[in-house]
Amino acid sequence: MIIDLPSTTTSALNKKLVEIREQGGQVALGRVLTLVIVADDDAKLEDAIEAANDASREHPSRVIVVAKGARTAAPRIDGQIRVGGDAGASEVIVLRLYGPLASQGQSAVVPLLLPDAPIVTWWPGAGPKAPAEDPLGQLAQRRITDSAAEKSPIRALTTRAKAYVEGDTDLAWTRLTHWRAQLVSALDLPPYEEVLGATVTGEADSPSTELLAGWLAEYLKVPVHRVKSSSAQGIISVKLERKSGAIELSRPDGRVGALTQPGQPQRRISLQRRTNPDCLVEELRRLDPDEVYEASLHGLHKIAPNAPKAAAPKAAEPKAAASKAAAPKAAAKRKAAEKSAS
Fold this sequence. Notes:
Elements: E1 2-5, H1 10-24, E2 33-40, H2 45-56, E3 61-68, E4 76-82, E5 91-98, H3 105-109, E6 119-122, H4 135-138, E7 142-145, H5 153-162, E8 168-170, H6 171-174, H7 177-187, E9 197-203, H8 207-220, E10 224-229, E11 235-241, E12 247-250, E13 256-260, E14 267-270, H9 276-283, H10 291-298, H11 313-341
Parallel strand pairs: 2-3, 2-6, 3-5, 6-7, 7-8, 9-10
Antiparallel strand pairs: 1-4, 4-5, 9-11, 11-12, 12-13, 13-14
Helix pairs in contact: 2-9, 8-10
């Protein structure tokens, strides 16, 4: 059921929620948290709401969507309440904010928060540089961003790494869970040797590839090279060098991975790119700080640069030729100078 309340107030929305609960038995006390979604009012907004609905089947919650509309419009709030089949196992409140109110999301959200329930804020699209300093981020115990959704993913990841505060996380990190699990499992098999170095290959602007390289650099304490490629999306392969041979996990097609180890048959593994609902479900399972994610952010600056390209031979030839041509002239000048001096 979807109920629209155009040009409304938060008081009117709260009153309508109470009325719906009394009539239909929607009980807010069964909600385990409040999920605040912050996004622009565009075509991608429904995808974020659908992801929250899917996640609510594991984490029943009140979902408050702050949809920022046109900043040049007259100030108003268009409200919408979704319950039942249109809201999964949650109740969804959509706040479309226009004009100056578009930047006042915190004031609109606070009256609608569930009492004594944890708060998680999620930016499915472009998010703030420092989530913990954002007004809506300050309300939350957990703040979820997605560097992959930014115009400059690597720059966004690097900026947020500098501004990291306990409780911050990124869906680019959550997408690595299966990769990390497979690599750890491979290292648990004999021979039990130290890793001497690692190479991580992936799309040039893939923040997940950067975080995977940072994770390996931080925990293995070995040189980790990051190779950029345009042949596929996301992470393509990880290679761990050991004395007896390399462990290699590759996923060129974005769906099925192949794990290769010395003395072991090649194994095919499902490594399909994870969806936003899957990642959101995982992130909502914990409300405490993610220390491994924090450590991986620290490891970003430990990623070893690739070896510089060798100088092109053609560029050196003219220089050498010029030196040879100049040698006879220099000798002639020296002889003339000696003759005049004598």
